[in-house]
Amino acid sequence: MTGRWIRDHLVLMLGLLVLAYTFIPIAVVVLMSFNAPQSRLIYRFDGFTMHNWLNPCEDPSMCQALGRSIEIGLAATIVATILGTLAAFALVRHDFAGRSASNLLIFLPMASPEIVMGSSLLALFVASGLGGQLGFWTILVAHIMFCLSFVVVTVRARLAGLDDNLEQAAMDLYATPSQTFWRVTFPLVFPGILGAALLSFSLSFDDFIITNLNAGNTTTFPMYVWGVAQRGVPMQVNVVGTVMFLISIAIVLAGELRNRQRAKGLTAPTVAEDLAVQRAS
Length: 281
What we know:
Layout: H1 2-8, H2 10-32, H3 51-54, H4 60-93, H5 99-105, H6 108-111, H7 114-127, H8 136-160, H9 164-172, H10 177-206, H11 209-214, H12 221-228, H13 236-280
Helix pairs in contact: 2-13, 4-8, 4-10, 4-12, 8-10, 9-10
């Protein structure tokens, strides 16, 4: 009896174990955000406190680095999402010379190690005469470069799964190409664009290797954490990590609720129509 129950629930138990293993580091970060350490050199929980949450900018340099990372992440996300979406539409909807090669080359930045891309970009900046001007703008260009591939791949996958009959039906109903795009194509592709934008921001915000090679004297949040790790990480770093995790969960939950509301909105008219047909018959 016990053996049969284990066999029936083996996949569920393995899934729960994997989830637990995945969320243990996150749980540690959340716990440490309420920690009152006796020493910054020993990373252990010594007591509960709200001081870290009430004083997140106790170290002003941390908040400056955090703001710089958010600023670079938002700018890189906007530019990479626009360029990547346009490139994805071109690769999926148009036939041109070099299309096959472009589809292959778009994966190279994703497959290349970050140390290779970072050093290549550094060599490019030095050869362009920007070796002495490394900073915010060189970081931004580097982040756009490696985010671009992820945007193209994500949006292209969304476009490839669209049903062309929906656009053809809109044009059969005398919609102009512009109306068809904004009222049919774009709303259907938007979830893929939004997902690509969120992925780009997370990659940009989290990047260290490429940023470190092209930052000059500019410090981003990952570089700040790496620098202070040698003399003790302030607990406010865990507050930032917890807030970012909560924002991610909120975005996922909002998307799921929106999808459920949309599904209910689509099924309700169908049920009403079925009842009307039954009454008429």
